[in-house]
């Protein structure tokens, strides 16, 4: 009643088929790597109380700035200066000014900083460490 549908023998593939699969794999890998992908690290610094960091941005390229309160219990106070007035944080506040970060909160800004020098200052009352990352490609 039961009929065997598949053979237990391995299928015979020609060397030509193996060679074609290998060529397709190499071609796909070459096309994927030929997309101009570049890997680099962003400038990252930990700032303790009353420490500051400055970074000269690239003109004409979109920069990414991330500021993170690493504390699990204390509020961080940061002062940011140097950006054009059109740059806003992800919470719609302007970049320049005084910012209060809740424990574990992160603020992210993306925009053209027009070659300006950005300053980040940690003015926290407690010994709160903030993590600042600034990436400007180009």
What does this structure look like?
- The protein is mainly beta.
- It is built from 1 helix and 8 strands.
- The chain has one helix at 15-33, and strands spanning 43-47, 52-56, 62-69, 76-81, 97-101, 106-112, 117-122, 130-135.
- The strands form 2 sheets. The protein has a 4-stranded antiparallel β-sheet with strand order 1-8-3-6, with no helix packed on it. A 4-stranded antiparallel β-sheet has the order 2-7-4-5, with no helix packed on it.
- The termini are far apart.
Quick summary of this structure?
The chain is mainly β and 138 residues long.
Name a few traits of the molecule:
8 strands, 1 helix, four-stranded antiparallel sheet, mainly beta, 138 residues, single chain, elongated
Question: Quick one: biggest sheet?
Answer: 4 strands, antiparallel
Task: Count the E strands.
Answer: 8
**How many H/I helical runs?**
1
| Cα distance spanning the termini | 71 Å
Biggest sheet strand line-up: 1-8-3-6
Molecular shape: elongated
Instruction: Report the order of strands and helices.
Output: HEEEEEEEE
* Proportion in helices: 10-25%
Give the C-alpha Rg. 26 Å
Strand-residue proportion = 25-35%
Mean pLDDT: 81
What are the low-pLDDT stretches, counting only 5+ consecutive residues below 50?
Answer: none
Q: Which structural category do the helix and sheet elements fall into?
A: mainly beta
């Amino acid at each position: 009643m039961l009929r065997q549908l598949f053979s237990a023998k391995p299928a015979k593939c020609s060397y030509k088929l193996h060679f074609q699969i290998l060529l397709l794999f190499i071609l796909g890998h070459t096309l994927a790597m030929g997309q101009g992908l570049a890997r680099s690290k962003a400038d990252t610094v930990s700032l303790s109380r009353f420490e500051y960091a400055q970074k000269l941005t690239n003109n004409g390229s979109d920069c990414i700035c991330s500021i993170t309160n690493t504390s699990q219990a204390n509020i961080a106070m940061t002062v940011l200066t140097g950006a054009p007035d059109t740059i806003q944080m992800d919470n719609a506040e302007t970049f320049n000014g005084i910012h209060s970060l809740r424990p574990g909160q992160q603020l992210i800004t993306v925009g053209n900083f027009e070659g300006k020098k950005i300053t980040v200052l940690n003015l926290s009352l407690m010994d709160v460490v903030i993590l600042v990352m600034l990436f400007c490609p180009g």
